[in-house]
């Protein structure tokens, strides 16, 4: 017949100890608690629950920091924290915490901060936090960032921020752990430099997100290296906006290119003959662009003739007339001949009144007549006997 195994002395102590006793992980998660602790803190503080979630919102950060700072030399640390109660009140608890040498777990005893029935309302026990703490809490709760602090040995003493959710992590999860254990050989050069006392910054792509990381060494009162403050900001929204702007700019550039092509539709209407029908208002800026496009087309096609058809142009000014004449002269310098066609009566009167000299420039009433002129010239050159 099997005999029951004798109860371990620690188990017997833990079960019968009259005080409230809790064992938590370095990240603040309850590992075990005795009946007295459950009776004092309530049923919601149970194994697997993080103690910070059970604390007053204004005390949660201090509790998390205290757990992260406790050393393994057996020396106890004391602080007060308010615990949530089912009736909406807050129970002020005094915590005494310590770690055994070489052990990661944190041991804690709990007791009432005042009388045995000290149930106080939040308004009565919640003094206003300093402005700096309230600002920090607002930033951590509302901005998509992760903020962390290590001591000079690289041990996390603070780990919080809204963006932790992107990694499936929770505030305080890495407290008491070393960055060298967490990242191993994957510590980036800027982060390693910060652990040596040099500030740094980097942009990385992790878990499908863009992150901007800033590393700031901190110093103690004697200006000695005391640790590192790290801030990681999720830049996905900024990256998305940047990509949208770049896509819109690219679209605008393509649209402008199409508009330019429509403004200067250079067409090869015959072998060695190009034509440029100009429509609408031709200002100086457009005329200069037309010249660049036309001269480039003449050079690429080795054209013999370039017809500028002004049938669709109703108004020209002095600068435009000057550009037209200069365009014809530039075409000649490329070994081709420039021809003007379709000059309207109003445009002809303007050119005369402006004193524009078109002598020496072939002009024709219509594009058809100008093309016929070019074909005749080409045929004449083709039939000319070789010397």
Overview of this protein structure:
The chain contains 13 helices and 16 strands. It has helices at residues 9-16, 35-41, 51-54, 57-69, 122-125, 131-142, 179-183, 189-195, 236-263, 284-301, 318-333, 345-353, 367-383; strands at residues 20-24, 30-33, 77-84, 90-98, 106-112, 119-120, 145-151, 156-160, 200-206, 209-219, 225-234, 267-270, 273-279, 305-312, 337-341, 363-364. The longest helix has 28 residues, at 236-263. By secondary structure, the chain is of the alpha+beta class. Helix 10 packs parallel to helix 11. The termini are far apart. The relative contact order is 0.06. The model is unreliable at 115-126 (pLDDT under 50).
Helix content percent band: 25-40%
End-to-end gap: 131 Å
Mind describing the biggest β-sheet?
A: 6 strands, antiparallel
Gyration radius from CA atoms, angstroms: 42 Å
If you average the pLDDT, what whole number results?
Answer: 80
Strand content: 25-35%
Give the count of helical stretches.
13
Order of helices and strands: HEEHHHEEEEHHEEHHEEEHEEHEHEHEH
Summing up helix and strand content along with how strands pair, one would put the structural category as alpha+beta
The coarse silhouette is: rod-shaped
**Which blocks of ≥5 consecutive residues have pLDDT under 50?**
115-126
What's the total number of strands?
A: 16
InterPro entries: Bact_StressResp_Reg, PAS, PAS-like_dom_sf, PAS_4, STAS_dom, STAS_dom_sf
Organism: Polyangium sorediatum
Keywords: Coiled coil, Phosphoprotein
Protein name: PAS domain-containing protein
């Amino acid at each position: 017949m099997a005999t029951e195994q004798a109860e371990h002395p620690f188990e017997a102590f833990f079960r019968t100890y009259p005080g409230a006793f809790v064992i938590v992980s370095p990240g603040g998660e309850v590992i075990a608690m005795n009946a007295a602790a459950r009776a004092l803190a309530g049923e919601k503080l149970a194994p697997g629950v993080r103690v910070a979630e059970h604390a007053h919102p204004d005390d949660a950060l201090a509790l998390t920091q205290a757990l992260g700072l406790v050393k393994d030399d057996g020396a106890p640390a004391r602080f007060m924290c308010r615990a949530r109660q089912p009736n909406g009140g807050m129970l002020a608890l005094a915590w005494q915490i310590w770690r055994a040498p070489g052990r990661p777990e944190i041991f804690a005893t709990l007791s009432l901060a005042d009388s045995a029935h000290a149930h106080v309302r939040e308004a009565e026990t919640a003094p206003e936090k300093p402005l700096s703490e309230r600002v920090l809490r607002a930033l951590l709760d509302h901005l998509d960032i992760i903020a962390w602090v290590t001591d000079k040995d690289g041990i996390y003493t603070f780990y919080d921020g809204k963006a932790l959710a992107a990694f499936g992590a929770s505030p305080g999860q890495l407290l008491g752990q070393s960055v060298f254990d967490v990242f191993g050989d994957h510590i980036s050069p800027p982060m390693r430099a910060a652990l040596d006392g040099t500030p740094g910054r980097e942009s990385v792509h992790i878990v499908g997100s863009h992150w901007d990381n800033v590393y700031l060494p901190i110093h103690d009162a004697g200006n000695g290296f005391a640790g590192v403050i790290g801030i990681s900001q999720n830049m996905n929204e900024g990256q998305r906006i940047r990509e949208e702007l770049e896509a819109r700019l690219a679209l605008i550039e393509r649209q402008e290119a199409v508009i330019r092509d429509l403004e200067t539709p250079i067409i090869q209407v015959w072998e060695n003959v190009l034509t440029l029908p100009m429509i609408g208002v031709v200002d100086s800026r457009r005329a200069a662009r037309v010249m660049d496009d036309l001269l480039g087309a003449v050079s690429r096609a080795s054209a013999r003739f370039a017809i500028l058809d002004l049938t669709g142009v109703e108004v020209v000014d002095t600068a435009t007339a000057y550009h037209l004449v200069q365009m014809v002269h530039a075409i000649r310098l490329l070994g081709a001949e420039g021809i003007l066609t379709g000059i309207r009566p109003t445009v002809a009167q303007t050119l005369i009144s402006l004193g524009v000299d078109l002598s020496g420039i072939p002009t024709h009433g219509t594009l058809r007549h100008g093309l016929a002129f070019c074909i005749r010239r080409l045929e004449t050159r083709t039939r000319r006997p070789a010397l």
